[in-house]
Every structure is written in C-alpha cells, then in structure tokens.
Amino acid sequence: DITQIRCQEGWLYIAVVLDLGTRQIVGRAMGPVNCSQLVIAALKQAWRRQKPAGRDLLFHSDQGSQYRSEEVLSWLNDRKVTISMSRRGNCWDNACAESVFALLKKEWTRPLGEIGRDEMASEVRYYT
User: Fold this and answer.
1) Which pLDDT belongs to residue 90?
2) In Å, how far are 2, 27, 33, 126 from 42, measured between CA atoms?
3) How far apart are CA 21 and CA 127, in angstroms?
4) How many CB atoms lie within 10 A of CB 59?
5) What single DSSP character describes residue 24?
6) Range of the domain at 108
7) Any idea of the CA torsion for 103, 106, 107, 108, to the nearest 10 degrees?
8) What is the mean pLDDT of residues 113-120?
9) Residue 69: CA atoms inside 13 Å, Cβ hemisphere, count?
10) pLDDT digits (tens, 9 = 90+) for 45-93
C-alpha cells in the first residue's frame, strides 16, 4: 500500500510491501510523487530480499492507479506473480498495511511535526 506524510516541502509518499506470513516490511520506497515507480522500487527491494519463486507468490493491493498501471502489472506478470486486488472501496482487504501505516504515524512521525522531507525519510527508514 501507499501512504503520505506531510513535510515542510509537501508530501512524502511511502510504498511498502509486506510479507503477510511474517508481517515484516520486505520492500519500501519513498519519494515526493505518488506514482507507479514508487511501487516498482518497493517491489524490487522485496524481490532482492526475499528471492522468491514468482509462481508461488500472491501480490495483493488496492485498486489504486499505481497498482493498475501497465508498468506494475507487467513487472509482476513477467515474474509469474499472481495478482490480487481489493474490492472497490473496501479498506478491510488491506488492513495489515493500513495498520502498519497507522502505527508509523501515531507512534513515530506525528510527534515530529512538519520536518523536511529528507529528514522525515530518514525517520521512516529508522522506524521501519
């Protein structure tokens, strides 16, 4: 999933890939623009860390434009990953990622206030 945190220069967007078996963040990417490249970067990091067999994987996301982009779908299809998307407007399908983001914001970033984007990215890296 992707979330955003307000910074002095604007938003910091954070994309994460979770391993639902371990509930660990295995891929993460951050940047000033919410786009499919953020998703691809998080997927690549997760792929390098986990070294999975694509045929054995299920990638679940919401129906956001980043996840439905030709770029992301091609990247997943090239690796034979099964693609699953939440039902429209149903946040419960993505509860694990929403929970990670809620804790990140409540426990860590909200008390920091509006700081610079680079500093916020460092804080997010430390927390996750």
Assistant:
1) 66
2) 10, 5, 14, 16
3) 20
4) 18
5) E
6) 2-127
7) 100
8) 96
9) 14
10) 999 999 888 788 889 998 889 999 999 999 999 999 999 988 776 666 6
What CATH number is given to the structural domain containing 26? 3.30.420.10
Tell me how crowded residue 15 is: count the other CB atoms within 10 A of its CB.
27
Alpha carbon of residue 124 to chain centroid: 12
**Which residue carries 């997010």 as its tokens?**
124
The reported pTM is 0.90
What is the distance between the alpha carbons of residues 56 and 101, in angstroms, rounded to a whole number?
Answer: 27
Q: What single-letter amino acid sits at 49?
A: R
Number of domains composing the chain: 1
Q: What is the DSSP letter of 82?
A: E
Task: Report the C-alpha gap between 19 and 28 in whole angstroms.
Answer: 12
Mark out the alpha helices in 1-128 (DSSP H runs).
36-50, 70-78, 95-103, 117-127
Query: What are the structure tokens assigned to 108, written together?
Result: 């860590």
Contacts of 100 (CB under 8 A, 6+ apart): 16, 18, 25, 128
